Amino acid sequence: MKKAHIILTAALLSMSLTGCGAATEEKVSTSSNSIETQAEVTEAETEKSTEAKATEAETEESTEAEATEAETEKPTEAKSAEAEAEPETEKPTEAKAAEAEPEEQDEAEAEIEESPAAEQKEVFALNGPLGRYQGPGEFGNASFAASFAKDDLVQTDDGTLSLTVMIYRYELFSGDDINALKKGDIIWCLGQEVKVDTVETRQDGAVIINGGIENGGRMFKTDDNSVYFEAGMNDRKSYYEIGENTYTLSENFVFTDGSDYGNPVTYTAEEFLALGEGVGFINANTIVETTDGVITAIERVYIP
User: Fold this and answer.
1) Distance CA 196, CA 212 (A)
2) pLDDT for 43-60, tens place per residue?
3) What is the CA radius of gyration of the chain?
């Protein structure tokens, strides 16, 4: 009986245990399913969270990229704005160029004005102060203007007559040069520079520069059209001094006095010595001729 009771008790206990185990298994299974479900949910949520974070990261990266691009574009836009503003900056340069243009124009005008000066011609005398120097010794065979006083004529112990004279010369200009003168040219007269403003040729062949003597200008005359000389008042030549020289009068010396207009008179050396001063002997009226270093003739001409 006790044995049966023990067996029954054991059976009941086993059944109880079996039922509890099944329940427990169900619970465990349910719990396991729940855990798995929760794990799946957690994993899904984690994936979603990861995806969300990735999306957020991408969004942030995209935002940052856009921000970077925006920042990058800003300098570009700034540069573009500066580039657009450059024309305004260039305006002063254009203004400078505009200012430079008048200067270039002025230079061009200056070149146009100066171009005649580049073609400007200078005319010099064939002889004279700026030409080849001529000393008194070069007038041993010549005809030249002279001045002296009667006291300069002396007779030596042997009866020879000697005369000390001041030698003068006037400048001679090429006829071609004088006839080609034009405004802007320069002609040198007795060492003075004369700029030509006006040129006039008279019927008698005289060439008038800058209005003539009365207006502070010059007049050039000619005897044969090949050479011209500068003439002063009363057509007197413009003389310059060469220097003094002493000559002996030749045995056949002749003095011709034409100071009395229309009544020339001729004298020998002795007669010449005996004459008084008269009207005087100046470069405007006295011409001396020499041959081989001695005076062969003297002429005194009429002057108005």
Assistant:
1) 11
2) 555 455 545 454 454 545
3) 65
